[in-house]
Amino acid sequence: MDKFTTLTGIAAPLPMINVDTDMIIPKQYLKTIKRTGLGKGLFAELRYDEEGKPKPDFMLNRPPYDKATILIAGDNFGCGSSREHAPWALLDFGFRCIIAPSFADIFYNNCFKNGILPITLPQSGVDKLLDDASRGPNATITVDLEAQEIRGPDGGVIHFVIDAFLKRCLLEGLDDIGLTLQKANAIQAFEVDMHAQRPWV
Prior knowledge:
The chain has about 200 residues and is α/β, with parallel strands linked by helices. The protein has helices at about 20-25, 45, 85-95, 105-115, 125-135, 165-170, 175-180, 185-195, and strands at about 5-15, 70-75, 95-100, 115-120, 140-145, 150, 155-160. The protein is globular and about 65 Å long.
């Protein structure tokens, strides 16, 4: 998993509440178990018309938001089913950070396991960032995980809170497998010891 330290990029505004995982990645895209290629299906029902053509009024179809790496969203983002394809699709599109007043619990935890930083802020902070994100080419913000702060295009700073363990996992690029492999020597020693004690197992 890629490490997350500091991210500077275009912030895309999506001021919608209760964006569920089916809206993030519709069910017809769930036939794959690959983490790549799902970006094209991200927000498909919002991005494309019935003929599959991009809707010009949807922000991710317009520059500079088509290259956005930060998403400013509404309350209860990622609700609905627990599909891990949702963070996969966001990551494949290019998003590494999502900022919202609240997240669904399973989606929130899935983000950390896939290298995405979900940040919870009071509505006032989200509103400020939505305003920043509406500036088109000037919608660039910086997210500093180590300092736990977000810096806007006007120089304003917003601090955020994050669990220390989840922060360390992102800073070091550790998913569940990576965390397990940190104990590889202890696991191997245990297996050798168990084999010596119970060779018949």
